């Protein structure tokens, strides 16, 4: 560039009037793609927080993300605790069920009995035989047990019979024991 003394004054005045071109870098295609990806990521995160807020009970619609995350953690811990309690209950029920499971005389059947007050649930598994269900139902009738519900299924030659019965005969436990014994002797 020549020294200022050699440049005419009119040119110097024109140079001073030009606006400065010191702007940030022009956004090219790669930067626009990055911005779009970031915008999409933020949109997806917002949708995920909305879904999380709607899935967790007790989180208000205007909750902050911090509240949503904290409530979700609390909810998951509660669910894990309930799961553990249910697993323990299931294990304790298995041991009770094993004690109540009686083998039948023919070694191909078993009976599970659960009793609540004067209502008894009988779970009977056996090899399917013609007339077996009728004989079992006659045992209930003989002991004046009112059958409230009965479900029967046969799969691959195995009979599963679930009977819920109301035993009103004086000492209900004695009648239930007699029914169990008679069915196991079939």
Task: Tell me about this structure.
With 186 residues, this protein is of the alpha+beta class. Helices cover 52% and strands 21% of the residues. The chain is built from five helices and five strands; from the N terminus they run H-H-H-E-E-E-H-E-E-H. It has helices spanning 9-17, 29-55, 65-100, 132-142, 172-184, and strands spanning 102-103, 110-116, 119-127, 145-155, 158-167. It has a five-stranded antiparallel β-sheet with strand order 1-2-3-5-4. Strand 2 (110-116) and strand 3 (119-127) form a beta hairpin. The longest helix is centred in the middle third of the chain and has 36 residues, at 65-100. The protein is rod-shaped. It starts with 8 loop residues before the first helix and ends with a helix. Residues 97-103 have low confidence and may be disordered.
Q: Key terms for this structure?
A:
186 residues, alpha+beta, 5 strands, 52% helix, rod-shaped
